[in-house]
Amino acid sequence: MLTDFGRRTRQEDPIVHFYETFLAAYGPKLREARGVYYTPEPVVSYIARSVDALLKTRFNCPQGLADSSTITIPNYDPSLTVKGNPPYSGHSANKSDWIEGLLKGKLPDGSKTDNYYEVDSKPLGERNPKYLQDDYVKFIRFGQWRIERSGGGILAFITNHGYLDNPTFRGMRQSLMQTFTDIYILDLHGNAKKRETAPDGCKDDNVFDIQQGVAIGIFVKQPGKSGPAKVYHADLWGTRAQKYEQLFEQDVIITEWQQLTPQPPFYLFASQNVDLQAEYAGCWSSLDIFPLTTTGIKTHRDHFAVGFEEAELLNRVIDFRNLQKSSEELSALYKLKNTRDWKIEPFPFLRQNSRMAHGD
Questions:
Q1: Is residue 6 very low, low, confident or very high in pLDDT (cuts 50, 70, 90)?
Q2: pLDDT at 77
Q3: Is residue 285 part of a domain?
Q4: Which residues, in sequence order, are bridge partners of residue 84?
Q5: Residue 7 located in a structural domain
Q6: Fewest CB within 10 angstroms: 24, 206, 232, 359, which?
Q7: What are phi and psi of 218, to 5 degrees?
Q8: pLDDT of 211-229, one tens digit each?
Q9: Closest by alpha carbon to 85, among 263, 234, 215?
Q10: How many CB atoms are located within 10 Å of the residue 164 CB?
Q11: pTM for this structure?
Q12: Which residues are CB-neighbours of 64 under 8 A, at least 6 positions away?
């Protein structure tokens, strides 16, 4: 079984694989919070071989990752490399003042640095820039900072691919371009949330068992050189097996890249059709058409607010009007939690009407 394990699963370490599977069944929320997703060997192979090749060709390290001048842990060395698969968590638990300051351009000594919340030296103006708080963004920012301090190096991560074209990340993209000299983005797609399909209409799988699309980002800072970076982009579509095969066969040197020219105000790390860009830019802005804005309608607590039978919903209303039931009981019964904008108690409308009906 162990002999054929890697051939069938593309995961060479059965212990890690079994731990991931166990945690998926035993504690799926813990697994998600800790980012316990085994990185497939083809992905690891592509990243490792790419970093090795870049060290040999750009950093005068003949032995690549095996070179004695290369280190892969934080240290101030021209051949610093930072590699990994950081967790993707929109509700990050890592809210230390240090990383918050780094994201917003402030170092502990009070000096200023690149600010992900600004673009072209102006605030983003986003009403809800929460996506910049994702853990993977913080890992990228940390790696970027370490390489800046070392004077050169390579940052190679596989992460959520949302930062490639989401407008909220335009300050992040500009900052990365200013820090690094070359940026390589291999978009692995597989975004089930967007229902991505290959350009030919065929199925497009994720390389992980997740819904969020992913991309490999390799950020190179050559010593003695400065940005703005040259940005290269490539897409990898298809089934999981097809993507694994391509990742095993390629590296950053032989991948067929398209050079991008990210332009303000969005500095996109994704290819786009620019033929109609001038016409698009000349059209009315939606902000001019709709001067008053708000967030879109969202549904919450669907398991409680939506039912398939009238009696089912009626019983819930009766429970909430029952003054004998405490907030704690209702919370446990319907798996509800208080939030900043919604609380079980007081539940003004239903509870007040109930008191009036009882003559209170």
A1: low
A2: 46
A3: no
A4: 157
A5: no
A6: 359
A7: -120, 115
A8: 899 999 999 999 888 879 9
A9: 215
A10: 19
A11: 0.76
A12: 51, 52, 53, 55, 56, 70
- Rounded mean pLDDT, 256-261: 96
286 backbone dihedrals φ, ψ, rounded to 5°? -60, -25
Do residues 311 and 238 share a domain?
no
Task: Tell me how many degrees the CA angle 255-73-181 measures, rounded to the nearest 5.
Answer: 45
Q: Are strands 214-221 and 182-189 parallel, antiparallel or unpaired?
A: antiparallel
Q: Which two tokens stand for residue 291?
A: 């001067």
Q: Which of 140, 135, 148 is nearest to 171 (CA)?
A: 140
Tokens of 274: 């620019």
Tokens 């083809």 locate to 42
Contact of 170 with 265, CB cutoff 8 Å: yes
Measure the CA–CA gap between 234 and 222, rounded to whole angstroms: 22
Query: Does residue 290 sit within a domain?
Result: no
Number of structural domains the chain divides into: 2
> Could you list the residue range(s) of the whole structural domain that residue 52 is in?
39-272
If asked whether residues 211 and 91 sit together in one domain, one would say yes
**Helix axis angle, 135-150 to 170-179, nearest 10°:** 20
Residues 6+ apart with CB under 8 A from 311: none
Q: Is 194 helix (H, G, I), strand (E, B) or coil?
A: coil
pLDDT digits (tens, 9 = 90+) for 34-48: 566 678 889 999 999
CA distance 148 to 142: 10
Q: How far apart are the first and last CA of the chain?
A: 71
Q: How far is CA 68 from the centre of its chain?
A: 33
Residue 263 shares a structural domain with residue 307: no
Q: Write the CB contacts of 43 (distance below 8 Å, at least 6 apart in sequence).
A: 85, 158, 207, 216, 247
pLDDT surpasses 50 at 197: yes
